[in-house]
């Protein structure tokens, strides 16, 4: 069957039900509401949780687009039976990434958190497991050159003794406060073009 959606309902009736092979809306489509905002083609609305699902014959293979007032998530993208999600929260427009219903990454106005939902810096990696977190930089090329960890200070007024980069080792003292234990500091000694020189301080 081909069913035309018109302003009064389906085929001229506001209460038509049944199985239809095709639904065509010439202008706008509204579900759960009679109002579709300007510039929007289709709107699905409910009082709280509203879901749009794209499904397959396999019950575990589907994707959902969801908005939830009670969960403070104006946007959720859900896949693989709910195992993989992306959530946007209203506070600071935070975005949360989950797999196996566990938060893996959290992005807010401060930075990106991996293993934490409260990043303190641009990139904050946290783990409660022994010998973690571990960051791996792997190069699989068969030549003699490996990977690089690069500190780049780009400025137009570089001066002698400017700090180019610091590796900071911090622990907790007996008063349970963060304390710098050691530092590796690199400085530019001479910025003269053609004879640039630097130093590395172990502190």
Q: Would you summarize the structure shown here?
A:
The protein has 203 residues and is an all-beta fold. The protein has strands spanning 2-6, 9-10, 22-25, 29-31, 42-44, 50-55, 62-68, 73-79, 84-88, 95-99, 102-107, 112-114, 123-125, 163-172, 178-190, 197-202.
Summarize the helices and strands and which ones pair or pack:
Layout (H helix, E strand, L loop, with lengths): L1 E5 L2 E2 L11 E4 L3 E3 L10 E3 L5 E6 L6 E7 L4 E7 L4 E5 L6 E5 L2 E6 L4 E3 L8 E3 L37 E10 L5 E13 L6 E6 L1
Parallel strand pairs: 1-3, 4-5, 12-13
Antiparallel strand pairs: 1-2, 6-7, 7-8, 8-9, 9-10, 10-11, 11-12, 14-15, 15-16
Structural commentary:
The chain is mostly beta strands and 203 residues long. The chain is built from no helices and 16 strands. An 8-stranded mixed beta sheet has the order 6-7-8-9-10-11-12-13, with no helix packed on it. It has a 3-stranded mixed beta sheet with strand order 2-1-3, with no helix packed on it. The chain is elongated. It starts with a strand and ends with a strand. The N terminus is likely disordered.
Key features?
elongated, single chain, mainly beta, 203 residues, eight-stranded mixed β-sheet, 16 strands, three-stranded mixed β-sheet
């Amino acid at each position: 069957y081909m069913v035309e959606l018109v302003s009064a309902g389906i085929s001229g009736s506001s209460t038509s039900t049944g199985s239809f092979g095709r639904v065509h809306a010439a202008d706008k489509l509204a579900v759960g509401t009679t109002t579709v905002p300007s510039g929007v083609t289709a709107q699905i609305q409910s009082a709280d949780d509203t879901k749009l699902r794209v499904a397959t014959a396999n019950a575990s293979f589907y994707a959902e687009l969801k908005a939830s007032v009670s969960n403070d998530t104006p946007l959720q993208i859900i896949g693989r039976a709910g195992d993989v999600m992306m959530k946007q929260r209203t506070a600071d427009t935070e975005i949360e990434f989950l797999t196996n219903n566990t938060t893996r990454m959290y992005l807010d106005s401060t930075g990106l958190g991996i293993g934490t939902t409260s990043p303190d810096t641009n990139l904050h990696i946290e783990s409660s497991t022994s010998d973690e977190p571990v960051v791996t930089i792997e190069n699989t090329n068969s030549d003699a050159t490996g990977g690089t960890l690069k500190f780049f200070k780009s400025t137009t007024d570089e001066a002698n003794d400017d700090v180019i980069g610091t590796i900071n080792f911090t622990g907790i003292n007996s008063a349970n406060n963060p304390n710098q234990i050691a530092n590796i500091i690199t400085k530019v000694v001479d910025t003269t073009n053609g004879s640039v020189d630097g130093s590395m301080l172990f502190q």
